[in-house]
Amino acid sequence: MTEEEKKVAHMMYHHQGEKPEDIAEFFGHHQSCICKILFPKKKKKKAAKTPGRPEKLSKEQIDRLVTKKDELVTKAGGKHDVTINMVKFSARSSACTKTIRKSFKARKITWKPMRSSIILSAKDKEARLKWAKKYQKKPKKFWQKAVHANIDNKWFPIYHNGKHRDYAARRSCRGAYRGPGQSLLEVYQKPKAGLKYNTGKKTACIMGGIGGGKVIMWEENSGPWDKHAAAAMYNGVLKRGLKAKYPAIAKKMKKKKKGAAFTILEDNDPTGYKSTEGKKAKKAAGIEVLSIPKRSPDLSVMDYAVWSSTNKGMREQEANWGPEKKESREAYLKRLRKTALSFSAATINKWTGDMVRRCKLLVKAKGGYIDG
């Protein structure tokens, strides 16, 4: 059709209201030809090209690589490294290792050193899972109020001068951004974990305990930690702290009312807590025990919050001290105690209440270690 005929066809349809089949009959053309003129298809705009090289891996391909990576790591069981080449071969990917590594990095999957921790046996995991299932429905108030004290012991080195304070500060440093060839510089290194370090002062064994939003016990055990020291603690400093914090329970115990007792959470220390003398002392002091499973520091508030927060507080205080400043052992321990006692009720309750979340995570991990 000519341009003039097309104009006439449009006029007949839009202005005179003629139907496409009547217009087709008028011009002697097929109806489909007239429809193409009256209703032309809009040309699709071509998508603007993204600058740079096109992506080699789709989301589905990256998902497959991640899945294969997880399978290989599980199969390795921590006995050997799983490399990008191994993942590439297993997934039968045509992408280069650099592309796969970049794709992993975009998902925050990077190579990290294996985490050092106590290896849990199948029996350990079973015990941890059973314990978590038993207590996972307990509310925050149970951990904050029904558990009257969470106790533990820790050895604290005495960093009494500038040299030793620098060592302590370097141990607490997590890391730093560094460039190629800088890893051997002293400023990018920290003391090895577990390395014995002599400060020249006797290390302090602190018996600590928190509960009800308060530090109930914080005292040094001057002698060796054994069954006698544990018994003395239960009948001494811990009992006094519990009575002072919970006078109503102490009053009921004095009247020998049925069910009146203090409940504490402790670990499975065989030397003191689980010794025969320790058990006798707990019974005499009216203390009942909620024991966490073996190898479970992630279920002890003293381990996952109190000790580390106390050390952090000490390092923050020392940050602006000069190298010439010195402290006696007694002054250091006094400051350590003051730091521990400075924790607010809200902070302590937050720590103890976190057991609700930890029990749920432990069930989800099927008794394995939890992150957090």
- CATH uppermost class of the largest domain: Alpha Beta
CATH topology of the largest domain: Nucleotidyltransferase, domain 5
Category by helix and strand content: alpha/beta
Radius of gyration: 35 Å
CATH architecture of the largest domain: 2-Layer Sandwich
Report the order of strands and helices: HHHHHHHHEHEEHHEHEHHHH
Describe this structure in words.
This protein has 372 residues and is an alpha/beta fold. It has three domains: 3-38, no CATH class; 59-106; 122-364, 2-Layer Sandwich (Nucleotidyltransferase, domain 5), CATH 3.30.420.10. The chain has 16 helices and five strands. It has helices spanning 3-14, 20-27, 31-38, 59-76, 84-91, 97-106, 122-135, 140-146, 162-172, 227-245, 247-254, 276-285, 301-318, 329-341, 345-353, 355-364; strands at residues 149-156, 204-211, 214-221, 262-266, 287-291. It has a five-stranded mixed β-sheet with strand order 3-2-1-4-5, with helices on both faces. The N and C termini lie far apart (77 Å).
Descriptive labels:
372 residues; alpha/beta; Nucleotidyltransferase, domain 5; 5-stranded mixed sheet; elongated
Architecture blueprint of SSEs:
Layout: H1 3-14, H2 20-27, H3 31-38, H4 59-76, H5 84-91, H6 97-106, H7 122-135, H8 140-146, E1 149-156, H9 162-172, E2 204-211, E3 214-221, H10 227-245, H11 247-254, E4 262-266, H12 276-285, E5 287-291, H13 301-318, H14 329-341, H15 345-353, H16 355-364
Parallel strand pairs: 1-4, 4-5
Antiparallel strand pairs: 1-2, 2-3
Helix pairs in contact: 2-3, 4-5, 7-16, 10-11, 10-12, 13-14
